[in-house]
Design a protein that fits this description.
four-stranded parallel sheet; six-stranded mixed sheet; globular; alpha/beta
Length: 430
C-alpha cells in the first residue's frame, strides 16, 4: 500500500512534516511543502490498462479525470469521502490554422475550460477540498483573480462548507464573480492586487479557522498534476516535445512538472517533455528572474495585464516552477496583451474559445518559434486553462467598429429591410 507524507522543498531543510497537520509551509524553515509518496510496486502496463478500463465504468470516482488516476494521489485514508463534480476528462483538440500561425508546428490544445466550473482549478480543488473534508474542515478560504474563487465555491458547496473569497477590488471579471456568488461564497473585495488580498487572507486565516486552498496548499498540486497522466493517455503515452502553460501563481507548471517526474520514476514514460511557462509582459516577475539569472524573485508591485487570470506580481510557487524548468530543460517567455489578443482571435478561427490568459500559451509558441528557440514542426501541447465565457467583457471590449458592423445587425422588423441588410452583410451583389 502506498503511503503519503509532506516534505519541505528547500535543499537546506528538506525535512518531512507531520501529514496529519494542515500545514501551509514548513514548520521548521517556512519553505514550500509538497506531498511525497512511497509508492507500492506496480506494473506500468497493468496500470495503464486499469486506468483505461475505468473510462468505461459508471462509478462516480471513475468518471473523474482526477480520481480515475487515484494510484498517483494516494493520500486518502480508507473510507474518506471524495468531493467530486466529475472534473477532468477534458479534450485534446488538434488545430490547423493556429498551428500554422504559431509555427508551423504540430499544435494540440488541452482544453481545461471544459471542467465543471470552466477552468483547470477544478483538478486541484477536488483533491484539496477532499483533503479538507477528511480533516473535518467547516470553512475554506482563498484569494483569487477569479478562477480559483469559482472552483472553491463550487466544491465547498458540494462538501457543505462555507467559502470565503478575497478578491482585489474591481479586478475580477463579472462572470467569475457571478459564479462564486451563485455557489454561495462570501466575497470580500480588498486591496488593489491579488497579492494584497492574499497577504490579508493569510494574516486573518488563523483567527477565522480557515483552511486555505490557494496553490500554496500542496494537495491542490496533487489534483492538478493528473492532467499529464490524462494528456499522455490521450496520446497513447507518447510524450510531446513541449508542454506550454500560462504563468500566474505558477501552481500549474509546478503540478505538471511533479506529475511528469512521478510518471518517469514509475516507469510510465521514458521521454520527459520540456515545460514552457508564458507570462504576460505586464505581470512577468518569473520571466525577469529566469532571464536575468537572479537567484531570488523580485515581485512586480502593480501587475498590469488584461489577462486577469495571470495578473499576479508575486507568484507563490516560483521555486517549484524553477525546479520544473531546470529538470525538464524548459524555459519561460512573456508576451504582450496585443500578442495575447491576436492568438486568442486565431484560436477562435479554429473554433477554439478560451479566456485571454489561456491564449498566452499560443502567443508564446509563436514568439519562441520566430526566435528559433522552438524548432519548426515541433510536437507541442498548449494548455488552455479557462473557458471562453470566463471574461466576456474582454471579447466585447476588443471588437473593432468594423467587426461590429459586419457581425451585429440592427434591423427594423420589415422583410425588405431584412433582405437589404443581409445582402450587404453577406456580400450579395445588388
Amino acid at each position: 500500500m502506498s503511503t503519503a507524507y509532506l516534505q519541505c522543498i528547500e535543499e537546506r531543510c528538506g525535512r518531512p512534516q507531520d501529514p496529519k497537520k494542515d500545514l501551509q509551509a514548513c514548520a521548521f524553515c517556512g519553505g514550500l511543502l509538497e506531498v511525497k509518496y512511497e509508492f507500492e510496486e506496480f506494473n506500468p502496463e497493468e496500470m495503464r490498462r486499469a486506468w483505461h478500463q475505468r473510462r468505461l465504468s459508471g462509478e462516480p470516482i471513475d468518471r473523474s479525470g482526477v480520481w480515475r488516476f487515484r494510484e498517483l494521489i494516494p493520500f486518502l485514508e480508507p473510507g474518506d469521502r471524495i468531493i467530486s463534480l466529475s472534473e477532468g476528462s477534458t479534450p485534446l483538440v488538434g488545430t490547423r490554422r493556429a498551428g500554422w500561425w504559431a509555427g508551423p508546428v504540430h499544435l494540440t490544445i488541452k482544453h481545461q475550460g471544459n471542467n465543471p466550473t470552466g477552468s483547470f482549478k477544478d483538478l486541484g480543488m477536488t483533491a484539496c477540498i477532499t483533503r479538507a473534508a477528511s480533516r473535518g474542515v467547516r470553512r475554506v478560504g482563498c484569494a483569487s483573480t477569479g478562477n480559483t474563487s469559482a472552483s472553491m465555491a463550487a466544491y465547498a458547496a458540494r462538501a457543505g462548507m462555507k467559502a470565503l473569497l478575497f478578491v482585489p477590488y474591481r479586478q475580477i471579471s463579472a462572470a467569475k464573480l457571478a459564479q462564486a456568488l451563485d455557489y454561495g461564497a462570501l466575497v470580500v473585495e480588498v486591496g488593489d492586487t491579488f497579492d494584497e488580498a492574499f497577504r490579508l487572507l493569510r494574516e486573518i486565516a488563523p483567527e477565522l479557522d480557515l483552511y486555505l486552498v490557494n496553490s500554496l496548499n500542496p494537495f491542490r498540486i496533487e489534483g492538478q498534476k493528473t492532467i499529464v497522466a490524462e494528456m499522455l493517455e490521450q496520446r497513447a503515452w507518447r510524450p510531446p516535445d513541449y508542454i506550454v502553460v500560462p504563468g500566474g501563481n505558477l501552481g500549474n507548471s509546478s503540478a505538471i512538472g511533479k506529475g511528469l517526474r512521478e510518471l518517469k520514476e514509475l516507469g510510465l514514460i521514458e521521454k520527459v517533455p520540456r515545460v514552457v511557462v508564458v507570462q504576460a509582459a505586464g505581470a512577468n516577475p518569473f520571466y525577469q528572474m529566469m532571464t536575468s539569472g537572479a537567484n531570488e524573485l523580485t515581485p512586480v508591485e502593480r501587475p498590469d495585464t488584461q489577462a486577469t487570470a495571470i495578473r499576479i506580481g508575486h507568484p507563490a510557487n516560483w521555486k517549484k516552477a524553477q525546479r520544473v524548468l531546470e529538470w525538464t530543460g524548459g524555459f519561460v517567455e512573456c508576451v504582450t496583451d496585443e500578442e495575447i489578443f491576436e492568438a486568442k482571435a486565431m484560436l477562435a478561427e479554429d473554433g477554439v474559445g478560451c479566456e485571454p490568459a489561456s491564449a498566452s500559451t499560443v502567443a508564446g509558441v509563436r514568439k519562441l518559434v520566430r526566435a528559433g528557440r522552438i524548432p519548426w514542426h515541433a510536437d507541442i501541447v498548449c494548455v488552455l486553462t479557462g473557458n471562453q465565457l470566463k471574461d466576456t467583457e474582454y471579447i466585447m471590449r476588443h471588437r473593432s467598429e468594423s467587426q461590429e458592423s459586419r457581425q451585429r445587425l440592427r434591423v427594423e422588423p420589415d422583410l425588405d429591410a431584412l433582405r437589404k441588410a443581409l445582402d450587404v452583410a453577406l456580400g450579395v451583389p445588388a
